[in-house]
Design goal:
CATH class of the largest domain: Alpha Beta
Number of strands: 6
Largest sheet: 6 strands, mixed
Strand content: 15-25%
Strand order of the largest sheet: 2-1-3-4-5-6
CATH superfamily of the largest domain: Carbonic anhydrase
Low-confidence stretches: none
Length: 213
């Protein structure tokens, strides 16, 4: 906590001047983020840092394992769905990014078997939403010799599973049909800070290329 408080004072003392006008401007109107960015709660993955975004640019949702629940999920497992509805329907974001990452503890737990609900009732229930990913790894990735490789495969497949679930949300599907929304699957490699995007034509995650579009 002492480190956090010191950071607050450092921001106020050394950085606020650069952002004062921006925050004042943002306070004068409703938020208008251009992208919903769904990523993992892992402390090493910072959406604003790796995309060099400013306050007001991204509507960020962080959860354990960057899981997008099926549209049928209800109750405590559906807070992410509430954020999706708010960002897509109310804030009218133009893009949705689901960003997985390497060395994901959630995917490791999923591949090894979600923790029992007796000891981790919320975590076990949450990870069970991605059970189809675990089954896919068991079926199609048995050939991978190392556990770390299977975790990476799970993290990548989980991004695709999230995109599949997103398309089933009525507000998402409606804006997709209208050509007003785009979905993107990203993968962040922590060791090198590289970002990859899923290419449907090659069915592979490729390095993100700079574009003027």
């Amino acid at each position: 906590m002492q480190k956090l408080i010191a950071g607050v004072h450092k921001f106020q003392r050394e950085e606020l001047g650069r952002y004062r006008e921006l925050f004042h401007r943002l306070s004068q109107r409703e938020q208008t983020p251009h992208t919903l960015f769904i990523t993992c709660a892992d402390s090493r993955v910072l959406a604003e840092l790796i995309t060099q975004s400013q306050p007001g640019d991204l509507f960020v949702v962080k959860n354990v394992g960057n899981i997008v629940p099926p549209v049928t999920a209800t109750g405590s497992t559906n807070s992410t769905a509430a954020a999706i509805e708010l960002a897509v329907q109310t804030l009218a974001v133009r893009d949705v990014v689901v960003c997985g990452h390497s060395q994901c503890g959630a995917m490791q737990a999923l591949v090894q078997g979600a923790p029992p609900v007796e000891t981790h009732p919320h975590l076990g229930s949450w990870l069970s939403l991605a059970e189809p990913v675990r089954q896919l790894i068991e079926t199609n990735y048995r050939h991978l010799p190392a556990a770390a490789e299977r975790v990476t495969a799970a993290a990548e497949e989980n991004v695709l599973f999230a995109l599949e679930n997103l398309r089933a949300y009525p507000t998402v599907s409606a804006r997709l049909r209208a050509g007003k929304l785009r979905l993107h699957g990203w993968f962040f490699k922590i060791a090198t800070a590289e970002l990859f995007t899923y290419d449907p034509t090659t069915e592979q995650f490729q390095p993100i290329k700079e574009t003027t579009a």
